[in-house]
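Co-fold these.
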Amino acid sequence: MDIVVRAFIAFVVILFLTRIVGRRELSSLEPFDLILLVTIGDLVQQGVTQNDFSLTGMVLAIGTIAVLTVFFSYLPWRFQVLRPVLEGVPTILVDEGNVVEKNLKRHRMTQEEVAAAARLQNVPSLSDVRWAVLETNGQISFIKKSG
Amino acid sequence: MADLPDFLTLRHNRDRAGIHEVPFRRAGTALVALFCLAGLLNVFGQRPQSSTAAVSAASIKVYAPTRVRLGLYYEARFTIDAHSDVKNATLVLHSGWAEGHTINTIEPSPIGEASRDGKLVLELGHIPAGQTHLLFMQLQVNPTNVGRRSQDVALYDGDTLLTSIDRTITIFP
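Predicted complex below.
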């Protein structure tokens, strides 16, 4: 029973942490982030399985996480009111070429970061952008001005 | 508004986007920081603490953590100072010292071990006046042992109670 409870707590803690860390931080996977990810995975594993090396324990832990993953993807699909809580809201960062400063501030982002993300999508200047939207997965999508 | 990408609105996605998210993130970060701070301040163990009791014949000091977490190794050190001859020093430990624990070793080995009313009895032998007897117990908390347990310690000379220490260990998940 313990392993199911521990897997549940680990899942909820990870969900909570990913929500408070901020989506921009989670969207990039630089070498440091990759190492951090592996380290966190190792720490979580120790907390969940502890000294249980059994196949049953492994199936229980993975099964619990799988069921919770399905459950937490079902919730926002079924109840729209939960979407902002569990997934966040797409945020407009650039409106008709104008940077929305307060939204950058809310996500601890700089104009330079948005410009860098734009360059990665072959957009040389933010003034060419009609809409830049910080999506719930942390990526920024750019819609260029027509003509 | 017609220019906006589908499912986006200026009100929700530009003007009010993150209006609840930011306070939630800040509160969440503060909560996590507080939790870590509590860890630094030994709320979850495992810094050892001393508990002492003394009578004219002898004094005993237990130096061990009172808060630990599952799976942790820790040491308990028992210091017995004999002020006068203790002919047959005997430590009586509450079952909480063994319940849900793995006792890796007790050094130096007691000359005798027994059970008294469900408690562990460690017979240490003669401690001459003015001498100190040090006893080390190396323990590990078993992974399923959550909660609070009594870890009382009593020092006897044979069957005569000299002094005792009331202590409790809290084991965090």
